[in-house]
Amino acid sequence: MRRELILEVLAGEGSVSVSxxxxxxxxxxxxxxxxxxxxxxxxxxVRTHGGALPAFHPKITARTREDKELKASIAKAAAGEIQNGxxxxxxxxxxxxxxxxxxxxxxxxxxxxxxTLVLAYARSNPQLRVTLVGxxxxxxxxxxxGPMALAALDQFYVSKTFIGIDGASVKQGFTAHFVESADxxxxxxxxxxxxxxxxxxxxxxxxxxARILPFEKVDTLITDTQLSNEFNEILTEANVRIVKAG
Length: 246
Description:
By secondary structure, the chain is an alpha/beta fold.
């Protein structure tokens, strides 16, 4: 609970001192500093002299904390779709990044991605080979976007593409908040034999600004057990295989 409060303070204020944190939490400076050490090891903040800064854009920090257990279950199920020797594409997103975390024990996996969060897990797994596409870094997504990234994807063809979404609606299908992101994810889908969407059920019934793909262009959806009956029926009619995790 204390560590959640620390992250809330960082998200709201951008930085915090150890002494101020100790006062707010009602603990000793030693205890507050120990909490910062743990959170730094988890990769969610950077310690400074006498304090700490968030490691990521506030939007990423908030998204990382939302539905943590559900996202972990979805990512673990997605990792189960990857076989030894596979080359896959993973799009930007906090849930998709977790796929790399659950690939321990698998061999000779090549990941092509614009998701910079993947690198944290790839560093500790020698069986992962990661190709990061070039382009413009967008901190609010922890992703690489733009024409260079789009052009780079032409060089690859993979067995599976794993994509994250910002929304899904009956009329628009799968959507993203930004046009650039939608263009890139659509290209990723074109470069694969199989397209797999990862999303919590909470995103269904909400539309992003830009359309990515109609339901019919997706092979598999990995989501949680709370997906509504309406979307279950619509996706099944569109020949989407639904995997429910959690």
